[in-house]
Amino acid sequence: MTTTPDTATGTARATEYPLRRKKLRHSQGFLAFWLLAPALLAVFGVIIYPTLRTLLISFFQVDSALATSTPFVGLRNYVDVLTAHGFWSAAGRTLYFTVVSTSFELVLGLVVAGLLNARFRGRWLFRTIVVIPWALPTIVNAAMWKGIFNAQYGSLNALLTQLHLIRDYHEWLGDPNTALNMVILADVWKMTPLVAFFLLAGLTSIPTELYEAARIDRASWPQVFRSIVLPMLVPSISIVLVLRTIDAFKVFDIIYAMTRGGPVNSTQTIAFYAYTTAFSDQQFGLGSALSYVIVLAILGLTTIYLRLLRRSEMSLL
Amino acid sequence: MTIRRIHRRGALAASAALAALALAACSVTGTSGNQATGGSTGGGGQVTLNALFMKQAGYSEDDIAKMIATFEQQNPTIKVTPTFVAYEALHDKIVTSAPAGTYDVVLMDVIWPAEFASKGLIQDVSSRFPSSWKTDMLGGALSAAQYQGKYYGVPWGPSTKLFYANTDMLAKVGATTADVQTWDGVLAVAKKLKDAGVVQYPLAWSWSQAEALICDYAQLLGAFGGQFTDSSGKLVVNQGPGVAALTWMKKTLDDGLTNPASPTMLEDDVSKTMASGQAAMSLNWESTFRDLNDASISQVVGKVAVMPTPKGPSGANPGVNGSMAWAIGAKSAHPDEAWKLIEFLSSEANQDQFAVSQMPNWKASYQKADITKTNPDVFKAAGQAYDSLISRPEVPNYTQVSQILQVEIQNALLGKKTPQKAMDDAVAQANALS
Amino acid sequence: MKTRRRRYTVLVYTGVTVVSAVILAPFLWMVLASVTPQRILIARPLRWIPDQLDWSRYEQIFRGGARSVGETFRAAMVNSLVVASVTVALAMVVGTLGAYAFARLRFRFRGGVLMLFLASYMLPQIALLIPLYLILSSVGLLDNRLGLILVDLALVVPFVLWILSNYFLTIPEELEDAARVDGTTRLGALWRIVLPSARPGLFAAIMFAFLLAWDEFMYALIFTSTNASKTLPVAISEFSGRYTTDFGLVAAGGFLAALPALVVAIAFQRYVVSGLSTGAVKG
After folding, report:
1. Neighbours of C (≥3 Cβ pairs closer than 8 A)?
2. Coil, strand or helix: which one is B239?
3. CATH number where A198 lies
4. Distance linking the first and last C-alpha atoms of chain A
5. A38, part of any domain
6. 3-class DSSP state of B203
7. Tens digits of residue pLDDT in C64-115
């Protein structure tokens, strides 16, 4: 999500009628409040209390769902989280998951978007096909890939042996060296179409005059891509990056359904780690602190992304 | 309304939220008072009990529906609403529902009483527990309801892992069940099976990163003459038997005797591997025997023998204690009615009636010919196995200890660490837990 | 020039074929597995095309009696349909009003409020589970569709707000001004002028909202427990859980669970690009 800029027309008009300006703003504020009230209620009516409650819990030692003695421990939960070995390995895996899945989705998404944007017969069919993974529920996607990767009857093993690429069936999800990559593969398969549609939206908004100008200049394809397409796509890319990063950082359901964090914790991401800490270990104070660390990490990453992209928008040419 | 008033509203809402937080601050988790919202009392003294069951291999949902129907018939004022969750989700369901007091009666695994009792999630029922039960019930099953000398529940069926062997396959290399009474014998037969090409991987195990792994390990640990903890409660699996058992497990993988997919398998996968004829021998719970002889899902009907777990070098062959027990939720509003339900479910008569699905935890049941003949093979094997059971550590933070063990055992199985190093690390981490 | 054109065409068709194959292969295998007898499914080497079809899983799902996986699945299908459609309907109403405010009105804290909605999306659901569980329990909305709709709404509304407010910005304000000179109120203008010309944006928002609500797992996992409110993702995760690992059954259930989402996505996909495109540029 990005912030929408103030409408240029609105500001212009407001300065045109300086006398009416104040009254206008007041009446608009009144209306805006009532228009936004249902949305505010729907979202914050549900989350504001749990958010504050969890923040509060993160400063206490709560090690039972029914804890009666819950000493205040200040920032100790946060210190404990940040000094725990498990946290940093989970954070490392999450970062790996985020970076690898997001970059693959971005690159492949760009390719798919380019194809979706091309003119050819049967384009409607292609679009329909591309939508399929996006529409597939995550849990179904996870179950499907779990079947494909299955060490005993999975179709990936069958395919690779029949093509003589491997000799013995491999335990894709049982090998700590491949498990996380396999989960990433499942995630990339599902999310690339979403990314592609976002990028396609950006592509279609590039004015054709730009391409024509480039053709007159006899620019080569890589040149056109670098000097026209990429810069014009920066807004779409930044949206995709922010969205996918947030999602990847919070990733839980696909892990829960595919590996439950195993083997050897090799697929335990930070959100799953937080879930285990809170509900399996009943360390609610720690779990709450962890949740807030995740929020801070997402916030930090998002800010960095937006900064970088805004700068590159000017320097990319 | 003006902006300023909107602002004021926001401030008002914020202070209201803060006040609410402050009010409930005496209990940080937000639980208030002792009243439960789960069970409700309807008109005419009608009570509704919410009971949390497990989707399990033993008693089926149909069995349980029949039990509840009988109970409701006998107790017209009590209505029982059952909820079923998978074993993997059971622990977390009990924890998340505890503050709200959703469930009056919960089914718990043998490894949880310490945690739930010490954290106050379940009620102490020692005063309700008849002393005759302490002698009439199997000892291993009783421990599923006990913590520090107090009773927090009532056992509901003992359980352990038995040893299953495909006699057809064994016969092809001239072996019989007599040859697989020890783990050394199992290895020798497995090697013959592999060399003769009868089956690519003779052994299958549930070595996934889950409690199932600890169950298999526990059984081997016992066979090697070890225990999880010493008398002071400290984990000692990094000594002799603990490391020997793990080394043995790793070796079966290295020798190609164990299905390399084992580190991704749960019990049901193991059962399916046996059922499809892709394994000759495996450990599994009692109810697997029923599944392996179900023609709709098994290709090995009538070809499988069941026996107590093989003996190890120590000569011992304890089964892992996998009993379950009923407990009353700490915030249940109807503990008396809940106890009635528990009494009924765990009664000898009720358990005997469903002995095909699940072994009873009453000693007397094993002497009744009409009961044992309903499931003779399993009764014979299980009856012996229940004589000696090995317990997993009875500590409040068991889930954490178990997770550490799962990871380190897998580290060794997958060759990332030597067995000794893995167990040293496990012990160090577990003992560092506060 | 001509060869370049040809090369381009070949490139496009190759790309389209490869991408289609990569997308379809896993999906079609799942569909095929759902009608392949278990015996063939676990055979090695795998025979890709079964010599006979096995419809028993679908029969189990459609005809299974009380306490069967079929019963659970059918109940979950109804629950998912109700929860997702009501969530989408409510989110669209609430989101349209809010989006209009963001797109057309100038008021204090506009940026701040927008940032708040964005920030709400960053919160991991785990952070809210226990307090939400207590709230739902105290108002009797645990294991209840309405309870699930309420919590899902909090996830979906920010998305709808974002898509719609970006889209509304692309609709020329002059259209409205003309109507308002004639005495139409703001809401009247929203209803009569903005909404009719915002169709692509609305459809894109509906599609996003539906897929989000249909996909939601964690709240459903924790807040539901019986057939009264359990949704498909939870039912499917139980299918593939411990005691029913017949992949064919999981595949059949998965395919059926994906169908409504596929229908919605395919029906609305052609609006998505135009519905998003403007949003992306204004971003």
Report:
1. A, B
2. coil
3. 1.10.3720.10
4. 25
5. no
6. strand
7. 877 778 888 999 999 999 999 999 999 999 999 999 998 888 888 888 888 8
- Flag whether A52 is in a domain: no
pLDDT for the residue C272? 86
- Supply the pTM of this predicted model: 0.86
Domain total for chain C?
1
Structure tokens at B16: 């209201």
Mark which residues 272-311 of B lie under 8 Å from A by CB: 273, 278
Residue A88 neighbours by CB distance under 10 Å? 13
CA distance B236 to A65: 30
What's residue C67's pLDDT? 72
Q: Cβ contact (<8 Å) for A36 and C98?
A: yes
Is B20 an 8 Å CB contact of chain A? Answer: yes
Structure tokens at B146: 């006990």
The CATH number of the domain holding residue C75 is 1.10.3720.10
CB of B388 within 8 A of CB of B316? Answer: yes
ipTM of this model? Answer: 0.92
Cβ neighbours of A165 (radius 10 Å)? 8
DSSP single-letter state for residue A65: T
Decide if C19 is inside a domain.
Answer: no
In a domain, C31, yes or no: no
Tell me whether residue A242 is in a domain.
yes
Under a CB-based contact definition with an 8 Å cutoff, are residues C272 and C266 in contact? no
Q: Is residue A69 part of a domain?
A: no
> Is C265 contained in some domain?
yes
Domain containing residue A214: 84-282+296-315
- Backbone φ and ψ for B326, nearest 5 degrees, come out as -95, 140
Among C106, C86, C100, residue whose Cα is nearest residue C191: C100
C55 assigned to some structural domain = no
Which residues in chain A touch residue C10, judged by CB atoms under 8 angstroms apart?
Answer: none
Q: Do B269 and C131 touch (CB under 8 A)?
A: no
Continuous segment of H or E residues that includes residue C33: helix C2-33
Question: In this predicted model, what pLDDT tens digit does every residue of A52-90 receive, in sequence order?
Answer: 999 999 999 888 888 777 888 889 999 999 998 889 999
Residues B49 and A128: their CA atoms lie apart, in Å, by: 49
How do residues C191-206 score in pLDDT, each as one tens digit?
888 898 899 999 999 9
Q: Go through the domains of chain B in sequence order and give each one's CATH number.
A: 43-159+322-390 (3.40.190.10), 161-319+397-432 (3.40.190.10)
Determine the structural domain holding residue C73 and report its residue range: 64-282
The one-letter amino acid code at A9 reads T
